[in-house]
Amino acid sequence: MTPYSTRLHNAIRAKQTIALVGLDPRLDWLPAEILNSAREQLDDPQAIAAQAFEEFCIRIIDVVAPLVPAVKPQAAFFEELGPDGCLALCRVIRYAREQGLIVICDAKRGDIGTTAEAYARAYLAGDDPYAAPWAADALTVNPYLGRDTLDPFVKVANERGAGIYVLVRTSNPGAGTFQDRTMDGQTVYQTVADVVESLSAANKNADGYGCVGAVVGATYPAELAELRERMPSVPLLIPGYGSQGGTAADVRAACRADGLGALVNNSRGINFAYRSGALAEEFGEQRWEAAVEAATKRMIANLATHLPKITHVENG
């Protein structure tokens, strides 16, 4: 069994980028051809939407699989559609794994005891895609219930070569309402970061990272730099690039000198690149997949100009 951080960093080295493509399908933004195809085959609105989401995401995966190391499907958009959506999400994750991509399921689960372990066993397949129904390499986790909400996820992640990404300093404007609160001389997000670092350091691999990652937003670059130093054993998942205002320069501090240690997410800016700006004019809806490819390549190039060069040596 190969640990999560090793598989992640081998994938990053192979693609020479830390760009991560989020899969955030939205019904009213989908290309008409995809919606029309689903409507021709099905009658139930939820089934139509689920099939359209699945086709849209699979076609994005086909475009980006040669370019990036990982994708991040947002579970909420699928779950909103009920059983049809959940099945579509499962098939999208499995398809992405078949294309050699690392898959982070963005479901932000969090509970305690056997309930937390059940969530972990449901989502975290890790090294073997067939070890869990949802087949993900990694899962986002909400730590609000305390350290004992994290322990079951860490246990399963270690057993299966999977990873978790704990919400530490998120990219949304209201993050500070709770995360910036001070107690015992430090903020809540710093307290969470210290727990995450201790959990990851306890099980770190030859590459210096453990299976416990952290979500830290690009929209708070000063805190990102601080947290990179505070959590040296922790792989980072960085939302907020692009549509939310984060830049490549903002995320530079997330990487160590060999270019590893982080993934930078871009969802809307790639999924729906055909809808706005220069790419809309160049490609339009009829060539939406070409717009996805162009947007992904632009992001990769943009990150490369600001971040350390990624080394080629692979681990185990």
Description of the molecule:
- The chain has 316 residues and is α/β, with parallel strands linked by helices.
- Helices cover 46% and strands 14% of the residues.
- It has one domain: TIM Barrel (Alpha-Beta Barrel), CATH 3.20.20.
- It contains 13 helices and ten strands.
- The chain is globular and about 60 Å long.
List the helices and strands and how they pair.
Elements: H1 4-15, E1 19-23, H2 32-41, H3 45-64, E2 70-73, H4 75-79, H5 83-98, E3 102-109, H6 113-123, E4 138-141, H7 147-160, E5 163-169, H8 176-179, E6 182-183, E7 186-187, H9 188-201, E8 212-216, H10 221-230, E9 236-238, E10 262-266, H11 268-271, H12 277-282, H13 288-306
Parallel strand pairs: 1-2, 1-10, 2-3, 3-4, 4-5, 5-8, 8-9, 9-10
Antiparallel strand pairs: 6-7
Helix pairs in contact: 2-3, 3-5, 3-13, 6-7
Count of DSSP-assigned helices: 13
- Helical amount: 40-55%
Tally of strands: 10
Structural class: alpha/beta
How far apart the termini lie comes to: 10 Å
Can you tell me the overall shape? globular
Mean pLDDT equals 92
Top-tier CATH class: Alpha Beta
Strands across the major sheet, in which order?
A: 1-2-3-4-5-8-9-10
Low-confidence stretches: none
Q: What string, H for helix and E for strand, traces the elements in order?
A: HEHHEHHEHEHEHEEHEHEEHHH
User: Architecture, CATH level 2?
Assistant: Alpha-Beta Barrel
- Name the beta content range: 5-15%
Cα gyration radius (Å)? 19 Å
Instruction: Tell me the count of domains.
Output: 1
CATH-derived topology: TIM Barrel
